[in-house]
Amino acid sequence: MKQQGSPRIMVVDDDPDSLAILVRYLRREGLVVIPASSATDCLASVKQCRPDVIIMDLMMPEMDGFTLCRALRADPSTTEIPVIMLTARNDIEARAEGIEVGISDFIAKPVVRRELSEKVHAQLRMLAADRANFATLDQLSRHGLSWRNKS
Predict the structure, then answer these.
(1) Per-residue confidence at 49, pLDDT binned at 50, 70, 90?
(2) What angle (nearest 5°) sits at the alpha carbon of residue 82, between those of residues 12 and 25?
């Protein structure tokens, strides 16, 4: 089902069963899925794989999802990748910290396939809109026009 040009989704989860379920769900959507079994695996391969969206578990042993997201946001080559956080913690403190570190969206565990699909596709739509806007701005600048923030 891996089609050329299909969106690339990296899934980071230390639980092999959860990882396998998420990979299966996303592949059924026709997405290219890059599994990573740890935050370290994610950081080691993210620049080469260049995913469009990263889905990560919050609670991982060596590095939690908040720390991983901070590392991704600190790197200019990965700072703009949307991140969806999977968490069994559904409290306001966890969500507030997630927003602070740059999480794009949250999914509570156990994961519901339809919610996963909708949230991934929403991030992909926003990403496509951002890319279209940047392409338009690039075209304007090539024609000697500029966009300025008038604030």
Answers:
(1) very high
(2) 50
Residue 51, both tokens: 């995913």
The CATH class, in words, for 8-139 is: alpha beta
The pairing of beta strand 8-12 with beta strand 83-87:
unpaired
Query: Exposed/middle/buried for 54, CB within 10 Å: 0-12, 13-18, 19+?
Result: buried
Residue 9 vs residues 83, 85, 150: alpha-carbon distances, Å: 10, 13, 36
Nearest-angstrom CA–CA distance, 33 and 28: 10
Domain boundaries, the chain: 8-139
Rounded Cα gap, residues 71 and 43, in angstroms: 8
**Are the CB atoms for 38 and 13 separated by under 8 Å?**
no
Q: What is the pTM of this model?
A: 0.85
Hey, is 10 helix, strand or coil?
Answer: strand
* Cβ atoms of 43 and 34 closer than 8 Å: no
Query: Within 10 A of 104 (CB to CB), how many other CB atoms are there?
Result: 19
